[in-house]
Write a structure and sequence with these properties.
By secondary structure, this protein is an alpha/beta fold. About 35% of the residues lie in helices and about 15% in strands. It is built from 11 helices and 14 strands. The strands form 4 sheets. Strands 2-9-8-7-6-4-5 form a 7-stranded mixed sheet, with helices on both faces. It has a 3-stranded antiparallel sheet with strand order 11-12-14. Belongs to the class-V pyridoxal-phosphate-dependent aminotransferase family. NifS/IscS subfamily. Keywords: Iron, Iron-sulfur, Metal-binding, Pyridoxal phosphate, Transferase. Its cofactor is pyridoxal 5'-phosphate.
């Protein structure tokens, strides 16, 4: 029996062996990738090999991959006023779905007055009619819609979103950080103009992200200035070891994607079948296409903080949703946007699975949940 069970893969993943090996090898490379001598060229080759691997994973050109310090920075870089598709009119406002990651909800470099929020349905999918109405009521816009939600796992119809946005003369940014390595997609199939990715969600190291642009995107302004790195789009010496590991993790994740997706979906179904034995159980976005590894659930009266601590004491790592809240357990803004009240939103617990998750892990998690649920029911009876 394992000492600890890790079921918080949407927050971050363990480092893949391939990524660890690539990172360790890169530590022995002394050169600066901007230097022209042999040592510098060796470092540059590591960066460019990783760039090619990431471009291949999402169907882009290598020269359109921009490395950053994180997915958050990549999102901020993408949210640039004036960005446009080819010769189209630059976007002067930003439309974001109500369930985006906080790094997108903050609006990047758009002023607060230029940001509008797109509603979502009770199932957690973007309200396409509301998007159309917002686009029709103003100048061209940059629209940001995530491919897969980090809390519910709901997969958005980004292809339809792209058609609507492009018809209105706008550009589409897709945060695909949770989707990479879990579902098949590429920048052409989702018809996105910009896509953001993050290494530590696919078995790479923390502290490395990437912005991928479609061919013909214009007007990207760097956040960091000072050097000519990343073709002038992001100044600063590249994190060679982290980038090399990102590339290795991406290749490993893509190689394993089909098999992992089937296996994880079977484990998720096993998990949810067990959860549904609890009276009053709610699995959010259950009837919506979802990531194969993600379950967000609650029962009336459950406090997420209590449940997360209870699981942890039982040797199981889970979360209440997004891991970007400085360790605080807060009501889910995603569930609030879906129309759920505070009582349910503050009780949501997320279990997310990964490549090493086993049936034994799921069964032990269900055993821990049954103990928590029994304690909750006893508490209700005692206060009745």
């Amino acid at each position: 029996m394992p000492d600890r069970i890790y079921l918080d893969w949407n927050a971050t993943t363990p480092l893949r062996p391939e990524a660890k090996q690539a990172m360790a090898a890169a530590w022995d490379v002394a050169g600066n990738p901007s230097s022209v001598h042999a040592e510098g060229r060796q470092a540059r080759r590591l960066v460019e090999d990783a760039r090619a691997a990431i471009a291949a994973a999402v169907g882009a050109r290598s020269q359109d991959v921009v490395f950053a310090s994180s997915g958050t920075e990549a999102n901020a870089l993408a949210l640039t006023p004036g960005l446009r598709r080819g010769s189209a009119e630059p976007g002067r406002r930003l439309l974001v779905s109500a369930i985006e990651h906080t790094s997108v909800l903050s609006g990047g470099r758009f002023s607060a007055g230029a940001i509008q929020t797109i509603k979502v349905t009770a199932t957690g999918l973007i309200d396409l009619d509301h998007l159309r109405a917002l686009l029709a009521d103003g100048p061209p816009a940059l629209v940001s819609v995530m491919l897969a939600n980090n809390e519910t796992g709901a997969v958005q119809p980004v292809g339809e979103v792209a058609d609507i946005v492009h018809e209105a003369g706008g550009a589409l940014h897709v945060d695909a950080i949770q989707a990479l390595g879990k579902i098949s997609f590429d920048i052409n199939s989702v018809r996105a103009d910009l896509v953001t990715l993050s290494a530590h969600k696919i078995g790479g190291p923390k502290g490395v992200g990437a912005l991928v642009m479609a061919e013909g995107v214009q007007g990207l302004e760097p956040l960091l200035r000072g050097g000519g790195q990343e073709l002038g789009r992001r100044a600063g010496t590249e994190n060679v070891a982290g980038i090399a590991a990102f590339g290795a993790a991406t290749t490993a994740a893509m190689d394993a994607l089909a098999g992992d997706a089937m296996r994880l979906q079977a484990l998720r179904e096993r998990l949810e079948k067990g959860l549904m034995q609890t009276p009053g159980m709610i699995v959010f976005s259950a009837d919506t296409p979802r990531l194969p590894n993600t379950t967000l659930f609650t029962v009336p009266g459950l406090k997420a903080e209590t449940a997360v601590i209870g699981f942890d004491l039982g040797g199981i790592a889970v979360s209440s949703g997004s891991a970007c809240s400085s360790g605080k357990v807060q009501p889910s803004h995603v569930l609030a946007a879906m129309g759920f009240g505070k009582d349910l939103a503050q009780g949501a617990v997320r279990l997310s699975l990964g490549w090493s998750t086993s049936e034994v892990d799921i069964d032990l998690a269900l055993e821990a949940w049954r103990k928590l649920a029994d304690a909750l029911l006893r508490g209700r009876r005692n206060t009745a």
